[in-house]
Each structure stands twice: as C-alpha cells, then as structure tokens.
Hints:
Blueprint: H1 3-6, H2 12-31, H3 35-52, H4 60-74, H5 78-110, H6 113-127, H7 135-147, H8 152-160
Helix pairs in contact: 3-4, 3-5, 3-6, 3-7, 4-5, 4-6, 6-7, 6-8
Amino acid sequence: MSILRFLGLDQTRAATAVETDTIRKITQELNALDPERAKYIAAFSYILSRVARADLNISPEETRTMERIIVELGRLSEEQAIIVIQMAKSQNILFGGTEDFLITREFNKMATYEQKLELLECLFAVSAADQSISTVEDNEISRIASELRIEHRDFIAVRSSFREHLAVLKEKPGPPMSKPS
C-alpha cells in the first residue's frame, strides 16, 4: 500500500472514475443524436480537422476554434464538442490521407449548397485561428471546395473575407529596396 493511499491523499482512482463516468454520459448523449445529424456533425468535424492538420500541426487555437464551431453550429454541449473534435483529430491523424476524399464526398452528398458554404467559412476561420492562413492550408481549403463542387466565385468571395490572414498576401520582411540613382 502506498503512503499516499494510506493517508487518503491518493485520489487518482476517484478522479479517474469521475472522468470515466463523465465520458460515458457524454458518449451516451452523442449516441442519442439522430443518426443523420450525428453523421453530418462527424463529417463536418473531420473536414475541419483536415484543414487544421494541413500544415501537420493542429494548434491549440485551431482546436478551440473547431470546438466553438461545433458548439455553435452543431448545437452540442462544450463537453460533447471537445470529444467530437478530439475524435476527428485522431481519425485524421490515423487515416487522413485515405479518408479525406471519401469523407468530403460523403459530406457533399448530404449537405445543401448553403451548408457547404457555411463549412467553407468555418474552414477559413479554423486556419485563421492563429492569425495566419498558410499556403498549405489555403491550398487544402481550395481542394476541399473543389471536392464539394463550390463555385469558384463563391470560394473567392469567402476567401476574400479572410485576406488579411493569407500568408501569401502578407509583406515579407527583408532588406529595404534601394531607390535608383
């Protein structure tokens, strides 16, 4: 027996039991969702994580932005959104290259054009969460927009609203240009 347990200070078991119960309750709530809604939220979340991971790094800001989006648009509790986003991120890390097109194609079948535009806006918001949309992220969003058959003019309209975050348009520091004599 450990000294901490003898003194009643070993609370890891109690904390783990509470955390496990919380996770079970949230999972039960997610299982209670309408299957079509759950499928929509899962695909939406996965595509968000696809863009967040395009540069091979999902920042804490991107994670928080994805969670906020799922709370607002998915009408899930914060706890549920955290689990959904963690699952989407894990699936993307494990199966990203294989599943990207398949999940996006499935989302394309189930979403209206307005929902696709809503997702596009969210993709830019996630990639701009750290105040800069890298070229890799921008290219991934463009690829997703193409897979979703979003019209180019609509893609450009949404992208334009995030232009201050586009790394490709930001001034690069360098030596000042000399003026010709």
